Amino acid sequence: MSRPRPENDLPKNDLVEAAIGEIPGSAAAARADGRIPRGFEDELARSFASIAADPRALERAVENGALSARLTTARRVAGPRLRSIERRTIDHAGRAAEALATRGHVAVDHARRVASSGGTSRRLVRVSPSGRALPAGLDDAGIGASSAALGACSGDPAITTLEEWIVERMRRGPGGAVLHVECRAGALVRRLSEVGFEAVGSDPTTEVESDTISRASGLERLGAQRRSSLGGLVLSGVTERVSPGSARALAHLSSTRLVQGGIAVLVSAHPDRVDDGDPITSDLAVRRALHPVTWCHLLARYGFGEITVLDPGGKDRPGDDGAGGGRSSAGTLYAVAARRE
Amino acid sequence: MSTRPVRFDQVIPSIVERDAVSNHTFEAQRVLRSMGFVSEIFAGGWAPGLEGRVYPLSELPREEGGGQWICYQASIGSAAAEIVAGHPGLKIVNYHNITPAELIEAWMPSLGEEARLGRQQLGELAPLCELGIADSSYNAGELAELGYRRRTVAPLMMDLSALDRVLDGHLRDELGEAKARGGSDWLFVGQLLPHKAHEEVVKAFACFLRLFDSGARLHLVGRPSCPAYALAVRRFAEEIGIAGSVDFAGTVSAGELAAYYQAADVLVCCSRHEGFCAPLLEAMHHGVPVVAYGTAAVPETVLDAGIILPSSAPVLVATAVQRVLTDPALREVLIDRGRDRVRTLTLASARRSFLGAVEQALASAQ
Fold first, then answer.
1. Could you tell me if B122 and B214 lie in one domain?
2. What ipTM describes this predicted complex?
């Protein structure tokens, strides 16, 4: 071993030098006599190498951990002021007030869902001729038709078409990090990862929590995302149970979390095609799916351009790709894509 | 014959408090002012609270005609180096080593790029500088390779006694209680960065638990500057089943650091690269024996005041630690040699070395 000896070197010490000379022999003896099992050191090396094999995955895991901390903070901040925040409209004059209001909407929405779902459902059951509490896919359990469709590998060609349309839209953006809010089992997240995006997802009910998929609800997850940190954003599920206030909050949040040029895609069940023609149920729903034109309006208002709609089940479907209309799950869905300007 | 310049300013990419290079820069300012120079520090960035002590690079004065010297504190790539290169003043570089990019870029691509840039900039500054001051012979060797014709070694200016003035009593008691229950305390101090090789310390510690002392504890003190790497080390400790014995202390106060040194039985360093490694000297100052992998400037910093190993093989390191803990004569010698070593690197002597280097630069320009 080469050991530099600068001018101010101290004299060697025989005892230290002797010990340094003997230590390798003692270590070899520990290996030879079996006190350290054969291959133990190699196993340690393999173990760390396997953990360290994908630093980017570790970075995402760190980000998810930081996200949890930010969620906790957001809930704590919003907590004592829920009622006053609930009454507050989004104040375009002040970014801080707007951010506070957004946090409020998130927390209020959550609290309402928990507190009122039973009562609301019972009332709606009584007035709904079909006996359904809410339109199909808009149940208060938190998962809508769009998340169910995009989250699992269904093999449905119409869903595949929708997925590929989303991928194609995302490719028009800056790339990088893409978040799928309410991703369920994460099929779309995996598809986006396959084509090179740093895709992550969140879902309040997911059973496949991992480095790329975290368990968190829609608006909360998006609210906790750092500003201007996403190249792409896919929203499903949460888009089907929005109140007017939370729809605005969702559009605003999407705008602030995307980088300039970032792509937002909102996927939702179409309200005209999922309620079995029951206008009472549809109109009285506390949270509902919106028409594509409403999302277009909101996205334009919150700084998006190049807005396009894919509506396979609509009258103006862009070519008959076999997605089908009527009652199939794909036929109920539409998607709106927009670029943050 | 030129007249003695009035200004001797320092430029540094960024500066914080309680960081070895930052502390050195503040000490250098004191030395330069004691020599009669007007001397300010100009930085690309600084920690809150340093306003008034540090100024932005845009305010760096530009005096022509040899009336101003610039000392560039080099440890990473930075736009500050470009500013120094284009400055009309006479220049010296004070080099604290730049970690080789290949040791960090897999984890931190941007830092790797900065490191690469730093070495390139250091080379570009070589023909523009009157002198290269290195804080170790190892670093002086790197300066020579980069084309610095005139070089000198002046150690890092560190006030090791500062840790004697602070001690976190609560943590000292907590660590003392754990020690009273048995088991030895390993310590490593360093930012959680990949080239510091914390995982090698953990591997050695795992072997030590198995071979010698199942009640031992490992304290890893240092900022998790690379969060993904820090997570990997933590997961590794969990996966091999020793997480309960490993204390990821993170960033600590000066008083807490003093408590960790006071409780430590040995400081174990398996870094793959160190340009100086101040914690080795801090450990010696506190009477803590050192076991270290002898890479880069580590052997030069430790000299014979520690056990320097030819590799960081886990069983080798564990065996060395056991030898230090169980051989009272060796332990006593290491502690004594460590204190002797620290005495050669006191703040006062380091100040004299730096002052001598500055005088050498001034003379070379005349």
1. no
2. 0.88
Give the model confidence (pLDDT) of B29-62 as tens digits.
Answer: 999 999 999 999 999 988 888 889 999 999 999 9
| Domain annotation covers residue A15 | no
pLDDT greater than 60 at residue B206: yes
Please check whether residue B326 touches A, CB under 8 A. Answer: no
CB contact under 8 A, B232 and A51: yes
Q: How many domains does chain A have?
A: 1
> Do A19 and B323 touch, CB atoms closer than 8 A?
yes
What's this model's pTM, rounded to 2 decimal places? 0.64
Asked if A69 is an interface residue toward chain B (Cβ–Cβ < 8 A), one would say no
Which secondary-structure segment (H or E) carries B84?
helix B79-85
* Domains of chain B: total: 2
Strands (E), B18-168: 41-46, 54-56, 68-74, 90-95, 131-134, 151-153
**B residues 277..316 contacting A (CB < 8 A):** 294, 297, 299-300, 303-305, 307-310, 313-316
Highest average pLDDT, of A124-133, A212-221, A256-265, comes from A256-265
Structural domain including B84 reads: 7-158+346-364
Whether the predicted pLDDT of A31 surpasses 80: yes
* A147 Cβ neighbours under 8 A, 6+ residues apart: A182, A183, A184, A203, A236, A237
Taking contacts as CB-CB distances below 8 angstroms, the residues of chain A near B106 are: 55
Using the Cβ of B344 and the Cβ atoms of chain A, whether some distance falls under 8 Å is answered with yes
Q: Is the same domain home to B185 and B144? A: no
User: Do B174 and B319 lie in a common domain?
Assistant: yes
Residue entry with tokens 């460590």: B338
Does one domain contain both B122 and B48?
Answer: yes
Query: In this structure, are B101 and B235 located in the same domain?
Result: no
Report if residue A19 sits inside a domain: no
Residues A6, B153: C-beta atoms closer than 8 Å: yes
B199 and B231 inside one domain: yes
**Has residue A219 been placed in a domain?**
yes
A114 against B268, higher pLDDT: B268
- Cβ of A48 and B341 within 8 Å? no
**Residue A328's pLDDT is what?**
44
Model pLDDT for residues B74-112, shown as the tens digit of each residue: 999 999 999 999 999 999 999 999 999 999 999 998 889
Q: Is residue B2 part of a domain?
A: no
Residues of chain B with C-beta less than 8 angstroms from the C-beta of A42: none
Q: Give B125-143 pLDDT, tens digit per residue.
A: 999 999 999 999 999 999 9
Residue B166 lies in a domain: yes
CB pairs under 8 A between A and B: 123
pLDDT greater than 80 at residue A274: no
Query: Residue A252 maps to which CATH number?
Result: 3.40.50.150
Q: Considering only residues 233 to 272 of chain B, which have any Cβ-Cβ distance to chain A shorter than 8 Å?
A: 235-236, 239-240
Better-scored residue on pLDDT, B349 or A271: B349
Asked whether the beta carbons of residue B239 and residue A47 sit closer than 8 angstroms, the reply is yes
* Structure tokens belonging to residue B278: 């101040």
Q: Is residue B357 part of a domain?
A: yes
In a domain, residue A260? The reply is yes
Q: The domain spanning residue B289 has which CATH number?
A: 3.40.50.2000
One domain for residues B128 and B165: no
The answer to whether position B1 is within a domain reads: no
- For the stretch B231-258, pLDDT in tens is 999 999 999 999 999 999 998 999 999 9
Which of B136, B211, B232 has its CB closest to that of A30?
A: B211
Residue whose token pair is 């670029």: A339
Q: B330, A15: Cβ pair inside 8 Å?
A: yes
A25 touches chain B (CB under 8 A): no
